[in-house]
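Take a sample.
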Amino acid sequence: MPNIFNVWADEGWEEPVIEERFDPDRTVLSLSFLKKVTEKVTKKTQEKYDAILNAMQPDK
């Protein structure tokens, strides 16, 4: 399990999710190949979006 979590972190993918289910008893490991969105990326994207909106003219 630690190796799976390490590989996912190294690749920048969303962290695996472990679920415990009952009746019948099961443990489910969900693996996503989606990239994590970090705060830095989100802030940078928002700044670019704001700059574009500020540069736009209301009539266009």
In short: Helices lie at 2-11, 39-55. Residues 39-55 form the longest helix (17 residues). Residues 22 and 56 are 55 Å apart (CA to CA).
